[in-house]
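[stage:ingest] chain + small molecule (S-adenosylmethionine)
[stage:ingest] validated
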Amino acid sequence: MMTDPTARCSEWLIGPMMARGGVISFYEFMDLALNDPDNGFYSTGRLKIGKDGDFCTSPSLSNDFAYLLAIQVAEWFLDLEKAGSACELFSLVEIGPGEGSLARDLIDAIYEIEPALISKIELILVEKNIGMRKRQENVVNNFKGVNCRWTDLDELMLKPVTGVVIANEVLDAFPVERLVFRDEKVFRQGVSLKKRNDEHFLELVDLKPTSAIKQFIKDSMSILNIEFPPKDIGNGWVTEWHCDVPTWFSKLSKVLINGSLLLVDYALESKRYYNSMRKDGTVIAYSNQEANANILKDAGFCDLTAHLCIESTINYAQTNGWKFMGETRQGQALLALGLSKFIYSLQNTTSEDLSAALNRRESLLRLVDPMGLGEFRWLAFQRDNRNNLNLRNRFLEEPIS
Ligand SMILES: C[S@@+](CC[C@H](N)C(=O)[O-])C[C@H]1O[C@@H](n2cnc3c(N)ncnc32)[C@H](O)[C@@H]1O
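[stage:predict] done
[stage:export] tokens:
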């Protein structure tokens, strides 16, 4: 295999790679690149989300996203209240809160939509990386008088909560195993350190598959009812496995006594995910608003993301005690929650506000753009320990104009 001259190894990664014998799995590489305590893209807080940052997420475009989502979140809280869920405070849990703007704007919107709920809510943020947490502290601490704390799933499992859990663009940042199919055999993708002319480069290499990888392939065939690998793949076909997601659902099922979980993420149906045409998998790097297929380049200085497989994700949730409530595209979900009303309301803008109105209109359209954020999937699940929950899912209803 030729060394890609653009895949220079980031200076900080040379030591950790050497300490691991010069070859690591892709899973380990992605974990180091994002979460290495001293150099990871997230842990250092180098990641900047927003129009002037590395990439935009829905909440970073405008607070309209949070406002629309808050309509659904408030309804779930009211349904929990109606079901008589006994708890001192309902918890709004956000996992992977990034800049903290979604948590802040959700509280702000709930304050406006259902003011009586605010005194009954606590905010719990689950953030793995200290650099991101520091930024969130400046944004949400004591916002609107709502008590806010940071914790992790292991700690939360000891004192479970009732409420609503949101994870927007988090699971796509979980490290993945990459599988390579070559010469009718499966390999675990690895990353190898190579020295050429005093410079260190990274190369993708084939490693022996683990027994967990072989089991994943068997399980996928029976659960998803697909051929794995699919027919007619080319030599070197690559795909991904979100191997940490089942454990995540299992822990989270012990965190939430009653309530809902909303995942919003890049996701594809299994037939589109495990497809011979998708020969390079879904992992992609992002920095400075640009996507880059060279996923080994600038480790620690760019984001790495992998799509979820929808049916696999649902299966992982169901086998870990979650009831699936439904899924739809973000465009549909936001229209069902009333996005078009926001767009119509901009027609009454006076000429002084024109520039702000145009910016807002552009952000609203980006949220539903089928070529962009509108294609994200919203997947909703619930935990119902008393078998009496009747959660309404307004985001799944047919949008009416
Ligand atoms: C792509 S950002 C998304 C941020 C935010 N949700 C948004 O939509 O703007 C991913 C966030 O998840 C955090 N993260 C990554 N892995 C995590 C994990 N296992 N548990 C909790 N947070 C995690 C990252 O540090 C970062 O804050």
